[in-house]
Amino acid sequence: MSANSNGNGNGARQALQEAESALEKALSEQDALKEHVMSEVKQFAHDIKNPLTAMIGLSKLMKMGLTPAEKVVPNAAIIHQSSTRILELCEDMLLDTEAALQGDGSKSKAANENKI
């Protein structure tokens, strides 16, 4: 009977080691995913600053009445272009986040690109 007990103990010990190994792997993958997502969020915040700054600056000048009439249309075009760029960045961020959560980096539209 002691042989059976010892055999069962070895099997349980091996199962426990396998479970611990699987847990360590899962935790490592989770940490890597968190790191990736944080990196993407930081890059996203950095990328939207330029278009937002342009929009804020130009619209403030227009609001204060400091924009000559001939500059209103070109400034509005820059504001529109900047708004469109931010929309694209938001869409890319959503796609990248979805791809990262699914573990498929190939779906990332902005992977390894610096668009600004």
Structure characterization notes:
- With 116 residues, the chain is mainly alpha-helical.
- Helix content is 83%, strand content 0%.
- The chain is built from two helices and no strands.
- The termini are far apart.
- The mean pLDDT is 86.
Share of residues in strands: under 5%
Question: Count of helical segments?
Answer: 2
Category from helices, strands and their pairing: mainly alpha
Q: How many β-strand stretches?
A: 0
Keywords summarizing the entry:
single chain; 116 residues; mainly alpha; 0% strand
What is the compact description of this entry?
The chain has a domain of about 70 residues. By secondary structure, it is mostly helical. The mean pLDDT is about 85.
List the SSEs and their pairings.
Layout (H helix, E strand, L loop, with lengths): L1 H62 L5 H34 L14
Helix pairs in contact: 1-2
